[in-house]
Amino acid sequence: MDTSLSLARGTAAPASANPSASATPGAGVVRIADDKAMLRAAADLTRDLVKPRPAVYWGDLIASMLLGYGALFVAATSDSTAVTVIAAIASVLGLYRGLSFIHEVSHMKHASVPNFRLGWNILVGVPMLTPSFMYEGVHNLHHAKTRYGTVEDPEYLPLALMKPWTLPLFIVVSALAPIALLIRFAILSPLSLLSPKLRTMVVERYSALAINPQFRRRAPEGEAKAYWNRLEIAASLWAITLIAITVTGVLPLRAFLTILGVASAFAVLNQVRTLVAHLWENDGETMTVTAQYLDTVNVPPPALLPALWAPVGLRYHALHHLLPGLPYHALGEAHRRISAELDAMSPYHKASYPGLPGLVSKIARSTMVRR
């Protein structure tokens, strides 16, 4: 679902302390030159890590969903408040981890992990009303070198340059995602078959996991369109069924509300992760790869909690922007190799942060600065 907000943009990006940065005349924006030594080291040191390991992918996904769905059942049926709360938390973490594999699905060559995309859609995408077409064909635009941080990037807003009230709004609105997805697939999907105009709107504006309100996705073609249609039909039928069995009492209201509550919780958790995935300091200018890296965030060990709120390799988000083809299970080793190879003055180390509170505080402070 397009979860974008119509938020006003700032007027200039903050200055950088990088000595290789140079000001763009008249733009008030600092441009950072590519650090060739860093880019070369990242590529050279990780050539043997590019092959995905299917057993890791399948084992991780299945374990995550067993935990997520099993704990959800307990939370929806237990008579103990304590058990319900503990089970709900476990369900949020399991389902959130399973859902995060949509990021891997959008990057992988599907032949490298046979049938993983299909399995993910069956286990996660359709049941959770986030089929893979919501991210495939969208997320790759975020990695395009000439699109990142511009108005053509579906996953970028200069949040650090906006008003302070936009940050809590950005988080709070995500709690409505489960209801929005139910409306998208149970109501808008069927109705759009009767109206070409509505169908165009649904495809362009309500079929992408994007935060940029100006983004409009293109309609799929060929094989991609056929795959999209199959997934959309399945998700639509499931959404209608879920509502129908709740209305008729087959699914108890408590269970339905528990499902919505857990889904809202991991939607908010993901939005918090999104808030700190970048520094959000670019105001539409094209950026070098190094500049994009420095606008992105790693939260490496020894911090432990990022494994929960930034799962499936997302704690190495900046490294992922350097090496988007690297499988999630290889990012930790890649980070260790690159960190050991590059000296302390390398820009590589400047994208690493100790944890969530400091990142939230940094972005919040940026919104307080008058620009």
Automatic annotation (TrEMBL):
UniProt region (Disordered), positions on chain: 1-25
Protein known as: Fatty acid desaturase
Keywords: Membrane, Transmembrane, Transmembrane helix
Signal peptide: none
InterPro entries listed in its UniProt record: FA_desaturase_dom, Fatty_acid_desaturase
Transmembrane segments: 55-75, 81-98, 118-135, 165-187, 227-245
Name of one Pfam family that matches: FA_desaturase
Fatty acid desaturase domain span: 86-346
Organism in which the protein naturally occurs: Sphingomonas albertensis
The keyword rRNA processing appears for this protein: no
Biased composition (Low complexity): 10-25
The keyword Transmembrane helix belongs to this UniProt entry's keyword annotation: yes
